[in-house]
Design goal:
The protein is an alpha+beta fold and 142 residues long. It has three helices and seven strands.
Length: 142
């Protein structure tokens, strides 16, 4: 199976009632800003790069809030998703990749649960409400 690593950025507004999401041209699906980790790139670097490419925003990662994976037997793919709690530190909200992204929007956390139902228990809304994360440590290259 081919391994595909994906990094997502969970960005909330100051009241923790809205999540920044993007609507992808590929099927019109709504997701968190994010995408595939490139060769020689860390999950952290990918999350920061993808957020900038998709939303125009510069972000700081706070910690990991979810680790998801699944296997697509028909395509022989094993996909691993790392979702980082993130905050905005600069930039301007804009679509930099119109060939990939149709829309950027601040979505109510409850609506985000139905748009991205891949998170256990009460979904993204519970992750936002609990505000819990674990450290992400890039131990470097040896």
């Amino acid at each position: 199976m081919k391994r595909i690593d994906v990094a997502y950025a969970l960005i909330t507004d100051q009241t923790n009632t809205k999540i920044l999401m993007v609507q992808n041209r590929d099927g019109g699906r709504w997701t968190l800003p994010g995408g595939a980790v490139e060769i020689n790139e860390t999950f952290e670097e990918a999350a920061i790069r993808e957020a900038k490419e998709e939303t125009g925003l510069d972000i700081r990662l706070i910690g990991v809030v979810a680790l998801n994976e699944y296997q697509v037997e028909k395509k022989s793919e094993h996909i691993v998703y790392v979702t980082f709690r993130s905050s905005i530190i600069g930039g301007m909200e804009e679509i930099n990749r119109p060939d990939e992204i149709m829309k950027i929007s601040w979505i109510d956390v409850e609506q985000a649960d139905s748009l991205m139902p891949y998170y256990n228990q009460n979904g993204l809304s519970e992750i936002v409400r609990k505000n819990v994360h674990v450290s992400y440590i890039d131990e470097g290259k040896f």
